[in-house]
Amino acid sequence: LPESLSELSLRSAELARLELSVRTVFVVENQATYLAFPDVSDSIVIFGEGFKASTLEAVPWLADRELVYWGDIDTHGLRILDQLRSRVPGVRSLLMDEATLIAHLDHVGSEESPTAVPLEHLTPDESTLYRDLVEDRFGRSIRLEQERIRFGAVRRALQPWADK
Fold first, then answer.
1. Sign (positive or negative) of CA dihedral 44, 95, 31, 12
2. Taking the CB of residue 105, how many other CB atoms lie within 10 A of it?
3. What is the β-pairing status of strands 109-110 and 142-143?
4. Distance of alpha carbon 91 from alpha carbon 93, whole angstroms
5. What 8-state DSSP symbol labels residue 91?
6. How many whole angstroms separate alpha carbon 155 and alpha carbon 158?
7. H helix or E strand, kind and range, residue 155
8. 58 Cβ contact list (under 8 Å, min separation 6)
9. What pLDDT sits at residue 79?
10. Which residue in 92, 105, 10 sits closest to 58, CA to CA?
11. DSSP label of 83
12. pLDDT score recorded for residue 3
């Protein structure tokens, strides 16, 4: 793929045939975050379109890359992470933790129809956050959309990849 490309739209099957030589693949839930995602060397960003992120299991070369998922901090964002991790083990989450939520409580909204289904592929910290969201620990049906997270926090969270 030419380095001069900054954006490209592909079906999962087409992406599977490319086998890009990147080290890290970031998957984001929302289009606004995809469009504003900072440049990180040796990586690509995929707009996962919510639950469509699970179609990435059809891309075999992802198993040899570091896969990082960043979704909204709400019950459905964690459910998408759980579903993706069930199909592509080893997925790491980014900015989907209690510290990020607490630092941005002034930016939260309300999730319209939260879920409470059991999630089996979250880390212990992610599971605790999910339970706290289900039980309304931070407020009723709390939702922190990823595009409402301060850009400085995003840059700090991406620093480990910038240092590679």
1. positive
2. 11
3. antiparallel
4. 7
5. P
6. 5
7. helix 151-162
8. 12, 13, 16
9. 95
10. 10
11. H
12. 63
Q: Which residues of 116-133 are buried (b: 16+ CB within 10 A; e: fewer)?
A: eeebeebeeebbebbeeb
DSSP structure class, residue 133: H
Residue tagged 């309300």 (tokens)? 110
68 and 164 Cβ atoms separated by less than 8 Å: no
**Contact assessment for residue 11 and residue 52, using Cβ atoms and an 8 Å cutoff:** no
What DSSP state is assigned to residue 118?
A: -
Which residue matches tokens 């289009």? 31
C-alpha 8 chain-centroid distance = 19
Global pTM reads 0.91
SS3 of the chain: helix, strand, coil, percent, to 5: 45, 15, 40
Ranges of residues in the chain whose predicted pLDDT is under 50: none
**Strands 24-28 and 66-70, bridge-based pairing:** parallel
